[in-house]
Amino acid sequence: MATNRTFTMIKPDAVEKNYIGGILDKINAAGFRIVAMKYTKLSKEEAGEFYAVHSERPFYGELVDYMSNGPIVAAILEKENAVADFRTLIGATNPAEAAEGTIRKLYAESISANAVHGSDSDENAAIEGNFFFSSLERF
Ligand code: IDP
Q: What is the active site of this protein (predicted)?
């Protein structure tokens, strides 16, 4: 059964370009409620652990370097059908293929520096939210 929560990060490229406000605006306007949020920076080890599922992919090293290169915003979002609706809101992994009006179309610069993360399943949303937030930090 679908849960009503997903997990997102505003990635280092978007934080660097001062897109935090614009991206949060799109998230709220699409009907998501922010139930946990923090501004933080991943170490290389933490980024490697977060993306361990991709460790066999050819871009893993590049991804870990990029995600530990600068601060990020991590958040848990709530809305009915959160995982699927948020994937629609952010658009395709490659911004060149992302639909008009999606966050990646508006704010991403490349397939690797693609502005935002969005969980791809309810199970991963729970795992990823727990990676960043304790039960005391979500409302
Ligand atoms: P997703 O973030 O849209 O779910 P995934 O395939 O799960 O896409 O990949 C995770 C992340 O790895 C992407 O968001 C992107 O930052 C990076 N990535 C994916 N494919 C490539 C690639 O071909 N080259 C470089 N980085 C990539």
A: 117
